[in-house]
Amino acid sequence: MIKGIGIDLIELSRIKQSIKRNPRFVQRILTEREQEHYGTLKDRRKVEYLAGRFAAKEAFAKAFGTGIGKLSFQDIEVLSTEEGAPKMVVRAHEHLTIWVAITHSDSQAVAQVVLEQV
């Protein structure tokens, strides 16, 4: 049964400005394992990666119905499967099946999350 659907769109320029303004922004948004992967990326790809994870986490919060204020960015982790697809795990919500899609354009990142309760 579908429990919720969420979507979020973020401008890459907004993420790039946030990184420049606040060096701790990356640590606030990404978990340690996400930060490890982030550190292996080149300039533009770093912004796309961070924007995609930010959008995915916001989309989860919307799908869950609480907004990000009730959850922490650190409670939500988006890693990749062996095939490269995003896979989301949320602390204390392991009972949910989470479907996540992330895409980028030259100027935006979009993520959609569908929550399924089995």
Automatic annotation (TrEMBL):
Main location per the UniProt record: cytoplasm
Binding site for Mg(2+): 8, 58
Enzyme class: transferase
Family according to the record: Belongs to the P-Pant transferase superfamily. AcpS family.
Domain 4'-phosphopantetheinyl transferase positions: 4-111
NCBIfam families in the record: acpS, pantethn_trn
EC number: 2.7.8.7
Chain's role: Transfers the 4'-phosphopantetheine moiety from coenzyme A to a Ser of acyl-carrier-protein.
Keyword terms: Cytoplasm, Fatty acid biosynthesis, Fatty acid metabolism, Lipid biosynthesis, Lipid metabolism, Magnesium, Metal-binding, Transferase
Required cofactor names: Mg(2+)
Localisation: Cytoplasm
Catalysed reactions, as listed in the record: apo-[ACP] + CoA = holo-[ACP] + adenosine 3',5'-bisphosphate + H(+)
Name of the molecule in the record: Holo-[acyl-carrier-protein] synthase
SUPFAM superfamilies: 4'-phosphopantetheinyl transferase
Any one GO molecular-function label of the UniProt entry: holo-[acyl-carrier-protein] synthase activity
Gene, per the UniProt record: acpS
Entry-linked InterPro entries: 4-PPantetheinyl_Trfase_dom, 4-PPantetheinyl_Trfase_dom_sf, ACPS, Ppantetheine-prot_Trfase_dom
Domain of life where this protein originates: Bacteria
Signal sequence range: none
